[in-house]
Amino acid sequence: MKKVVIYYFSGTGNTWWLAEELKKLLIIKNTTAVAYSIEGVTAEQVPQQLKNADHIVIGFPVYGSTAPKLMQEFIKELPMASNHQTATVFGTQALASGDTAYFIGRRLAEKGYKLMQTLHFRMMNNLHLPMFRFYPPKNDHRTIALHRKCLPKLDKLATAISKDQRQIRGKYTLGIILGKLQRSHMDAMIEKVSKHFDVSTEACVHCNKCIRICPTQNIMAVNGTYAFGANCNACLRCYSQCPQNAILIGAASADAEKYPRYRGPQEDFNPFKLIKP
Ligand SMILES: Cc1cc2nc3c(=O)[nH]c(=O)nc-3n(C[C@H](O)[C@H](O)[C@H](O)COP(=O)(O)O)c2cc1C
């Protein structure tokens, strides 16, 4: 039986949802599939998990035609492929992804994994800030409608993985040019966003959820308020999951009606699922 290992990073839940659905579909299609949030595994565990794997899947949210830094670092540390291991890369995105999955897929190919599938899935947007106004996220049936649209494509992906069918998306000239352009701005954009983090002292109830769920341990309690370090990935998990909407990115985001937070792919989404137990 084919053994598939899925590794994903998810800031606000979309990629987690997709990775878990893919795992279920792969199991239905007679493969052995496991899914890990990269925040929940240690560097020592990964080579063991991959030892007898036939296929590796990497999933992440698209950030300006590339992967979040945490995922890029995870891929750098991955062991070289052994025994003709194959790979899938998928990105979740709100609108446009260019060549993202193919671009990241090439990093896996450099490690010896045979790149078989690269693709993108449209899901709910989580990025709507005073300095980056994409469309506002919707925490209602529209999120579920996007999921429904993803499922047939996800089913095809599971079939392609189980039957070794090649399915490469994002490898076209315009996509590659747009991808390059977007990537060249991404570090500056993340730095800009991360400099605007603040906490509303009126709204905050000091539950410390933000500290506990930050994937880079970038938030610290200092003198009765919070400080943000220099290691932000701009995943927006703290911003989206604060029960009081007390995390601000730009003063105008205090208006949570104008800047609604994305609460995740389903009502009972729990961000603690993504981190180390
Ligand atoms: C910093 C940042 C950059 C983003 N850049 C893009 C983008 O270039 N194109 C796009 O379609 N969506 C973009 N998005 C939206 C997310 O990719 C999308 O909502 C994704 O499904 C979120 O996945 P997650 O919930 O697993 O974190 C961006 C989101 C963030 C936070």
The domain count comes to: 2
Looking at the structure, what is the overall shape? globular
Under the CATH scheme, which class of the largest domain?
Alpha Beta
Radius of gyration using CA atoms only: 19 Å
Major sheet attributes: 6 strands, parallel
Can you tell me about this structure?
It contains 8 helices and 12 strands. A 6-stranded parallel β-sheet has the order 2-1-3-4-5-8, sandwiched between helices. The protein has a two-stranded antiparallel sheet with strand order 6-7. The protein has 277 residues and is of the alpha/beta class. It has 2 domains: 3-177, Rossmann fold (3-Layer(aba) Sandwich), CATH 3.40.50; 190-264, Alpha-Beta Plaits, CATH 3.30.70. It binds flavin mononucleotide. Flavin mononucleotide is lined by residues 10-15, 61-65, 92-97, 123, 125-127, 234-236.
